[in-house]
Design brief:
six-stranded antiparallel beta sheet, 555 residues
C-alpha cells in the first residue's frame, strides 16, 4: 500500500495551524452536525505523522487550510451544504458531463466536498475564480468556496475544511465515484489513486466550460442540461430551449422539432410525452405545418399564436437559479438580440489584442465589420457606446458601469487572442530604435558629468547606461518619435520601466527596457537618473558593407 500519510501532503496548505473538530452529537435545522471548533499548531503539518495518525485512527478530527502565507494552494474545495437526502450520484454525473477533474467526498454531515487538486502550487485568487465558475455551472452558485483567503497575513490562520477519512476503518467522510452505474465508496488507497489520476499541473488545466452542450445559447440552458432537468421544471426548460432553437434556425423557422425531441430525451429526467412537447413547439412557432400535425393526438387542436414577441423565461425556474445574464448577453443566441433588431447589444465575433505602444485592439463584429479601438474604448462604457454607435450606426443601450465591466470581461475571456507584431513593424520597435540612436549619437556622453549636459553615460564596467528622463524625452520629441503630451510621456515612462520577462520568468508579451530610477553622485551632488542594463539595448552600430561599384562602358 502507498504511504498512509500521503493524505498530509495532498491537503497541505497552512503548515503552521490546523483546525480541530469535536462533535457534540447535535445537529442544526439543516441537519449539519454541530460541535466545538478550535485550532492546533504544528511546524510542518504535511509531514506531522502524529497529527495525521490521530485523524486516521479516529482520535482527533482535523481540518486543513488550503492557502499558505505566500497566497498559494495545492487544492481547493466546493463545500455543498445540503445534508438531507443529498444525491451524490447526480452530482458526480454532472461533474462528468462538465468534464471537470474533481474528486467528490461525502462530508461529515452527509453533504459533499468537491475537491480539485494540483501537484504544483497555484495562486489562491485564480483558484477561487475557477471554483466559483464551476460551482455555478454545477448548480451550486451559493456553495462555500475554499480557499476563502487570497493570502494569509501574519498571525492569520485562515478557514479550514474537515479532512476526509477521519476514523478510516469506520469513517463517514470518504471519496465516491461511479462504477458500473452505481456509487462506489473508495478506500484510502483508492482515494490516492483518484488523486494521482486527476491532480492538475497548472491553473490553466482547470477548464470550466459553460458552453459544452449549447455553445451559442443561454448559459442557463447549458447548466440545466448538464445537471439533468427534473420533472418540475421540464416545461419551462423545454420552452426556453425551443426559443433558443428558433433563434438558431431563423432561416428554417420550423425545422428544429427533431432537435427539441433530442433535448427532451437526453437532458430531461422524465421526458415529456409527444403531445405536450408538440404544444411547446407550436406555442413558439405560432403554428405547425401539416406534416408536423400528425404527431399530435386527433383531439388536440393548435391555435394560431402571435409569436412575434417570444422571449426566454429568464425569471422563472429552473432558469432563474442558473441565470448568468452577463455571459448570456455575449452569446449569439443569448438573451440579447442583435443591434439590427433594435433592442440588443452588438455581437462580437473576435477581439485581437495587438501588442504595440500603446496596446490597441481590433474588434470584429458579427456582421464582419472590424474596428481599431484603444484601451479606453473597451474599458469605459461611455467611450464604447460612442465608438460602436459611429461604427455600426446604432448606439448600444447603457448597462451601467458594473454590468458593462462584467460584460466586457466575458467578451475578452471568450473571444480575445493575443497578436505580436512582426519585428520592426510596430511603434514599439520605432521608439526603441530612436532610443538606441540617441544613446549612440547626440546623447552619447563620455563620463558621468555628461548627465549634467543633456547626454547619457555608459558605465562600461558595470555595463549600465544612465540617463535623465527629460533629456531622452526631449530628444524623442525632436525626432518626432513621440509627441509632446501627457499621454506619450506616460507611455514612454511605462515602456522604459516595463520588464522584459513576466512574474513567472517567461518572456513578457509586450516587453519594455527594464529601466529603474536611481540617484547617483556627480561632483558631490545627488542626481536623479534612470538606469538600463546594457544587454537590454542594442548599442552596437551596424556595419554596412560597401557596395561594389561597377563602371559601365559608354555606348
Amino acid at each position: 500500500m502507498q504511504d498512509r500519510f500521503l493524505i498530509g501532503k495532498i491537503f497541505k496548505g497552512n503548515e503552521l495551524a490546523y483546525g480541530v473538530f469535536k462533535p457534540s452529537n447535535e445537529k442544526d435545522v439543516r441537519g449539519k452536525e454541530q460541535g466545538g471548533q478550535g485550532w492546533g499548531h504544528t511546524e510542518q503539518l504535511s509531514t506531522d505523522i502524529k497529527v495525521w495518525q490521530a485523524h486516521l485512527e479516529g482520535t482527533q478530527s482535523i481540518g486543513t487550510v488550503p492557502v499558505n502565507h505566500d497566497g498559494e494552494c495545492h487544492w481547493g474545495c466546493i463545500d455543498i451544504d445540503t445534508y438531507k437526502n443529498f444525491n451524490h450520484t447526480n452530482l458526480i454525473k454532472s461533474i462528468t458531463r462538465a468534464q471537470l477533474p474533481f474528486v467528490v467526498c461525502r462530508s461529515k454531515s452527509g453533504g459533499a466536498h468537491v475537491y480539485c487538486f494540483f501537484k504544483n502550487a497555484v495562486k489562491a485568487k485564480d483558484l477561487q475564480k475557477k471554483l466559483k465558475q464551476a460551482s455555478a455551472l454545477l448548480g451550486y452558485k451559493d456553495a462555500e468556496i475554499f480557499p476563502k483567503q487570497n493570502k494569509l497575513l501574519r498571525g492569520q490562520t485562515g478557514n479550514y475544511v474537515n479532512a476526509p477519512y477521519f476514523d478510516e476503518k469506520n469513517c463517514q467522510r470518504y471519496a465516491l465515484k461511479l462504477d458500473n452505474g452505481g456509487l462506489k465508496i473508495l478506500s484510502l488507497e483508492e482515494f490516492y489513486n483518484e488523486y494521482e489520476e486527476k491532480a492538475l499541473t497548472k491553473i490553466d488545466d482547470l477548464n470550466v466550460q459553460t458552453d459544452i452542450i449549447f455553445p451559442k445559447g443561454p448559459p442557463c440552458n447549458n447548466c440545466i442540461a448538464l445537471n439533468g432537468c427534473s420533472e418540475g421544471g421540464r416545461n419551462n426548460f423545454l420552452f426556453n430551449c425551443a426559443v433558443m432553437l428558433k433563434r438558431m434556425h431563423e432561416e428554417n423557422k420550423e425545422d428544429w422539432l427533431m432537435e427539441l425531441r433530442e433535448i427532451n430525451q437526453n437532458y430531461v429526467d422524465t421526458p415529456l410525452n409527444e403531445v405536450e412537447l408538440s404544444r411547446i413547439y407550436a406555442s413558439v412557432t405560432g403554428h405547425m405545418e401539416h406534416q408536423n400535425r400528425q404527431v399530435l393526438d386527433d383531439n388536440v387542436e393548435l391555435e394560431e399564436a402571435d409569436n412575434s414577441n417570444y422571449h426566454y423565461l429568464c425569471k422563472q425556474e429552473p432558469m432563474s437559479s442558473f441565470c448568468d445574464r452577463v455571459t448570456c448577453m455575449s452569446r449569439k443566441f443569448g438573451v440579447q438580440r442583435t443591434m439590427e433588431e433594435g433592442d440588443g447589444y452588438p455581437i462580437i465575433a473576435s477581439i485581437d489584442k495587438v501588442y504595440d505602444e500603446p496596446i490597441f485592439y481590433y474588434v470584429t463584429f458579427e456582421n464582419g465589420v472590424t474596428a481599431r479601438m484603444e484601451s479606453d474604448d473597451l474599458f469605459e462604457e461611455k467611450n464604447w457606446r460612442k465608438k460602436v454607435g459611429l461604427i455600426l450606426d446604432a448606439k448600444p443601450p447603457g448597462l451601467g458601469a458594473a454590468n458593462f465591466d462584467d460584460w466586457m470581461r466575458v467578451q475578452m475571456r471568450e473571444r480575445m487572442t493575443h497578436v505580436q507584431l512582426p519585428e520592426g513593424v510596430g511603434r514599439f520597435d520605432r521608439i526603441k530604435e530612436s532610443i538606441n540612436e540617441w544613446f549612440l549619437g547626440t546623447g552619447q556622453g563620455e563620463n558621468r558629468e555628461s548627465l549634467l549636459q543633456g547626454s547619457s553615460w555608459h558605465d562600461t564596467d558595470k555595463k549600465i547606461v544612465y540617463f535623465v528622463f527629460s533629456d531622452l524625452y526631449s530628444a524623442l520629441i525632436s525626432t518626432k518619435a513621440i509627441k509632446e503630451n501627457a499621454k506619450d510621456s506616460s507611455m514612454l515612462m511605462d515602456f522604459l520601466k516595463r520588464p522584459l520577462v513576466d512574474e513567472e520568468g517567461n518572456e513578457h508579451p509586450n516587453p519594455g527596457l527594464g529601466a529603474v530610477s536611481k540617484r547617483i553622485n556627480i561632483n558631490n551632488k545627488t542626481k536623479a537618473v534612470w538606469a538600463i542594463k546594457e544587454e537590454n539595448l542594442n548599442l552596437e552600430e551596424e556595419e554596412i558593407e560597401p557596395k561594389e561599384i561597377i563602371k559601365e562602358e559608354p555606348l
